[in-house]
# Entry
Amino acid sequence: MNVEQIIKTTKPIPLATRTIIHLSLVNSKLNEAMGNALKPFEVSLQQFNVLRILRGLRGEPANLSTLNERMVAKMSNTTRLVDKLLLKEFVKREICETNRRKIEIFITPEGERALTLMDDAIKNAEQQVTQNFSTKELNELNQLLDKF
# Structure
């Protein structure tokens, strides 16, 4: 990926600026690839993330703040994401028995089944976008990204 060609400039770009632009372009490409993988399921990347968080809780409930804390992309519209997953019957919402002001969110069996299919689609997309890297290069890249 040549940053200068993509943004159509012939001027030299300072290295720090070029790096940030490059990372932004890669981020866009990754989001597009993952979003396309999830398109057949009519689920956004953020909704997929919510489902994975809920599955990871192994039957324990989550509340909106728990979901927001664990989201890859922090956002304030977690309520809307959960509402959309409710409509698909991938999650259910219950009022906490011990604290009636607290809403608990669970993944449903239908959500679990759909998530298993989504996992396969995402895994394929991940393999496609990382196919030009060796395992060693991916480890090195992760070490470099950890510095952020």
About this structure: The two ends are 21 Å apart (CA to CA). The longest strand covers residues 91-95. The longest helix spans residues 15-38.
